[in-house]
Amino acid sequence: MSSFPQMRLRRLRRNEALRALVRETKVEAGDLIYPLFVVEGNKIKQEINSMPGIYRYSPDLLPEELESIARLGIPGVILFGIPQHKDQLGSSAYHPKGIIQQAIRVIKKTSPDVLVITDVCLCEYTSHGHCGFVVGDYVDNDKTLELLAKIALSHAEAGADIVAPSDMMDGRVKAIRQTLDKSGFQNTPILAYAAKYASAFYGPFREAAESAPEFGDRRSYQMDPSNWREALREVEQDIAEGADIVMVKPALPYLDVIRKVRDTFNHPLAAYSVSGEYAMAKAAALQGWLDERAIVLEMLTAIKRAGADIIITYYAKEAALWL
Ligand code: PBG
Questions:
Q1: Ranges of H-type helices in the chain
Q2: Active-site residue, from 86, 249, 260, 317
C-alpha cells in the first residue's frame, strides 16, 4: 500500500555524498576570469576605495600577481588600463607603448600560459569619459569603429589572446574582425560584450578605472535594463559579425537574460559579475552581515546555473581558494 508522500525528494539530500552525486552545477576555478587594473608607473599597488581587496598595479608588479593567479588554477585575466594621458580620441588606448600594451607584453613574457583578454573600449582613455568619439554631445558610432579596430589590433600585436569590445557600438565586431584578419590575426578570438546594460552596478569600476562620463550617461549606447528581447538581437548581431564568445553583463541581476541567451544560441557564453556585485557582497561581509564564502559561491553557482560557461569576477581568487 502506498504511503504519502510517494516520492521523497529529501532522500537524495541526506548527506553530502548523496548531494554531491546529484549536484547539477559545479563551479570550478577553470570557469573564472580575474579582472586586473593596470596603471602607469613603478611599484604601484593601490587599493580601490569602493572595492576593498582589489588593486591597481603598475606593470612591474604584474608577474608576481600573475603567478598567484596561475597557481590558483584561474585560466585568464581581463585587463583594464588607466593611462596617464587622456584626450578626445583616446589615443593612449592604441599607442604601441600604451599601458595595456605594456602590461600584455609583461604578462606574456612571464606567464605565457595565462590567457590575456583585453577590454577594447575608449572610456578610460578619453578626456570626456565616453566609450567612443564624441560629436557635440553624441557618441558617433561609425567614427568610433575605426578607433576600436585600431585598439584591438594594437592589443593583438602586443600579444593579447582574446580581444573583448565593451563599447556597445553597432558593427564593432565586424570592424574589429576585418582589421585583425587583414593584419594576420585571423586566429585572435573576439569575446563580445554583446548584451551590456546601462547599469548602476558599474559604479565602483568607474572609480577604479577613472572612467565616469564627464557629461550625460551611457544610455544612448548601452542597453535599457528593461529589455531582454533586445539582448537576443544584440547577441544575434554580434554572432553574425563574427563574435567567438558572447557576454551578458552584469550577471546577477540579469540571470534571466543569461538563460535566454543560453537557450537561444550555441556560442560559448560569458557573464560579467561586475564591480557593484562585488562591492555589495564585500561591504556586507566586512560588516559581518553575511557569510562571504557562502554568498559568493552561491552567486557564482547561480550565474553558472543560469547558463554561463565563463564568469568574469573580482572574487575569482578568493573563490578559487574556497572551491
Ligand atoms: C568599459 C567597461 C566598463 C566595465 C567593463 N568595461 C564600464 C562602463 O561601461 O561604464 C564595467 C565593469 C564593472 O563594473 O566591473 N566600457
A1: 16-21, 62-71, 99-110, 141-158, 172-182, 203-208, 229-241, 255-264, 275-286, 292-305, 316-322
A2: 249
